TrEMBL record:
Keywords: 4Fe-4S, ATP-binding, Cytoplasm, Iron, Iron-sulfur, Metal-binding, Nucleotide-binding. ATP binds at G15, K16, G17, G18, V19, G20, K21, S22. Belongs to the Mrp/NBP35 ATP-binding proteins family. NUBP2/CFD1 subfamily. This is Cytosolic Fe-S cluster assembly factor cfd1. CDD domains: Mrp_NBP35. Residues 82-98 have a biased composition (Low complexity).
Length: 323
């Protein structure tokens, strides 16, 4: 089983394309990491993977190890002392206060020959790929949260991932020496639930309602709804203008009886971060695979206007999952 090092799995879903599932996944992961949690991102949008691009890791490739694939490291876990210096540390050495968790990612894009390669697969091959992602990826020990970025809709990828996670959660005893035997050395991860992303417009919420219905039928708890692109935040004064209306996601959540996490405005500072506009160049003294701490995305994200918003949302999720 490839998820024995994972504690909690969170799906990021939406019935509508283009609502920002991947950007929400990235920001949830960065916020969880800032709060000291070790995080993984699994991108199962097979035909349109966005995670490598958003992480500026399009040139990276998955490495093969005995037993499976190794996800691509985004940044390491560090412990920050009171003087502001940092050093690598293990999860068990200290409390989570002042600690930054690690982040790793896996996407089909890391396996393709180039970023322009098209994936033209029928359903059975997509399902087989999802199963391989679940069984053959060696996530680092003590990965607390695995965020799964999904494609739009309720199709093959969604059915396959939910089926595989439910199989793992249902521990069935096997027969060994004529007696029932339950292997508890490799505990199954907890399918914590799903974060559902929408935009305020009615055309979006009508499709996302179908995703909520999918969660009910497949027994996936809904952890909360996030209304993305809820207004535009001016980079000069910080005022939010309701370009695409506002409140549709909250109304939908209330009518469907699911938690509402909150709204996220359009913020150009996040676009600048992921597009690399403010990304500092490596110095000549840096090795090929080494990036100064201040240039890492997780550190630069602290300057983004959305950082505080997502820190609040991830705190809610952690509290809800830990109940």
């Amino acid at each position: 089983m490839g998820l024995e090092n994972v504690e909690h799995v969170v799906l990021v879903l939406s019935g509508k394309g283009g609502v920002g599932k991947s950007s929400v996944t990235i920001q949830l992961a960065l916020s969880l990491s800032q709060q000291g949690h070790n995080v993984g991102i699994l991108d199962i949008d097979l035909t349109g993977p966005s995670i490598p691009r958003l992480l500026n890791l399009e040139d990276k490739k998955v490495r093969q190890a005995p037993g499976g694939w190794l996800p691509v490291p985004v940044h390491d876990a560090i412990e920050q002392d009171q003087q502001g210096t940092s050093s690598e540390t293990s999860r068990s050495e200290t409390s989570q206060q002042g600690r930054r968790g690690s982040l790793h990612a896996l996407s089909l894009a890391f396996l393709l020959p180039s970023r322009d390669s098209a994936v033209i697969w029928r359903g059975p091959k997509k399902t087989a790929m999802i199963r391989q992602f679940v069984s053959d990826v060696l996530w680092p020990p003590n990965t607390e949260y695995l965020l799964i970025d999904t494609p739009p809709g309720t199709s093959d990828e969604h059915i396959a991932i939910v089926e595989e996670l439910h199989k793992l959660a249902t521990a069935t005893p096997t027969i060994q020496n004529g007696q029932p035997y339950l292997n508890i050395s490799t505990p199954a991860p907890s399918l914590a639930g799903a974060v559902v992303v929408t935009t305020p417009q009615a055309i979006s919420t009508s499709d996302v309602r179908k995703e909520l219905n999918f969660c009910v039928k497949t027994q996936v708890p809904v952890l909360g709804v996030i209304e993305n692109m809820s207004g535009y935040r001016c980079p000069c004064c910080g005022e939010i203008s309701n370009v695409f209306s506002r409140g549709g996601g909250e109304i939908m959540a209330q009518e469907c009886g699911v938690p509402y996490l909150g709204s996220v405005p359009i913020d150009t500072t996040f676009g600048e971060l992921v597009e690399g506009v403010k990304h500092a160049q490596r110095t000549a003294s840096d090795s090929e695979d080494s990036v100064p701490l201040k240039n890492e995305l997780v550190e630069r994200y602290k300057e983004c206007g959305l950082c505080t918003i997502f820190n609040e949302y991830t705190s809610k999720l952690v509290s809800h999952i830990g109940r």
